[in-house]
Design goal:
Oligomer: single chain
CATH architecture: Clam
Number of helices: 4
Number of strands: 14
Largest sheet: 12 strands, mixed
Radius of gyration: 20 Å
Order of helices and strands: HEEHEEEEEHEEEEEEEH
Shape: globular
Structural class: alpha+beta
Strand order of the largest sheet: 8-9-10-12-13-2-3-4-5-6-7-14
Organism: Niastella populi
CATH class: Mainly Beta
Number of domains: 1
Protein name: DUF4412 domain-containing protein
């Protein structure tokens, strides 16, 4: 009888532990530090972008992704329920605003469709969280690595199109964009409520352009 009781308790505690190990969150702030290399003998472009920060705010179905560097800043505000987005850019003194429909948003991110993630046996601790290394594979066969924690899962999976199929929170990853290799490492995780004002759309001060105009200017990339 005692043996059966012990087995039952272990089974129950095991179930409780598994359920509590992964925490779904509705509000979250992430700050990433970026380091960039160009593999070029003239790393001027890399130097210009190196050291920029990327901040992500999540509140319910709303998300905001900001990038701030010495030469430009941008913010993409996305409503996952409606599928619409607003992109704000400040470049060379210009302040630009682009509204995107759900179709526009899907088109702008279509290169990320079909990404798969395969866990490896490698692990490490980042910002106090145990992370698993996964290899992400694009449909064209190219890959990148990501360390993620399965302990935190945003309820809003559309906060970043690149990781919508990842079962956890990416804390470090490396992407190749053109001749640049960008490594993002999280420096801050905040689970406190996010102010609703983070998702306000400016009513003045920006020159508004259409999505088609922004594509010609390469504004949304």
């Amino acid at each position: 009888m005692k043996k059966h009781i012990v087995i039952l308790l272990v089974s129950c505690f095991g179930t409780l532990y598994t359920a509590n190990a992964q925490r779904k969150v509705g509000e979250l702030t992430l700050v990433y530090d970026a380091s960039i290399s160009s593999g070029s003998k003239e790393p001027k472009l890399a130097d210009a972008f190196d050291g920029h920060t990327k901040t992500i705010y999540i509140k319910g179905n709303m998300s905001r992704a900001e990038i701030a560097s010495a030469i430009f800043s941008s913010a993409a505000i996305h409503d996952s329920k409606a599928g619409t987005s607003v992109v704000l850019k400040e470049v060379s003194g210009q302040k630009l605003l682009t509204r995107m429909t759900s179709e526009n948003w899907a088109e702008a991110n279509k290169r990320y469709d079909g990404i798969t993630f395969a866990n490896t046996s490698e692990t490490k601790t980042i910002a106090g969280y145990n992370c698993i290394k996964a290899v992400a594979t694009f449909p064209d066969g190219t890959t990148f690595s990501v360390f993620y924690t399965p302990d935190i899962v945003p309820e809003n999976k559309d906060y970043e199109y690149l990781f919508k199929n990842l079962n956890g929170l990416p804390l470090e990853y490396e992407l190749v964009q053109g001749k640049l290799t960008i490594k993002y490492t999280v420096s801050k995780i905040n689970l406190n409520p996010v102010p609703a004002s983070k998702f306000d759309i400016p009513k003045s001060g920006y020159r508004e352009m259409t999505y088609e105009e922004s594509k010609k200017m390469n504004v949304n990339n």
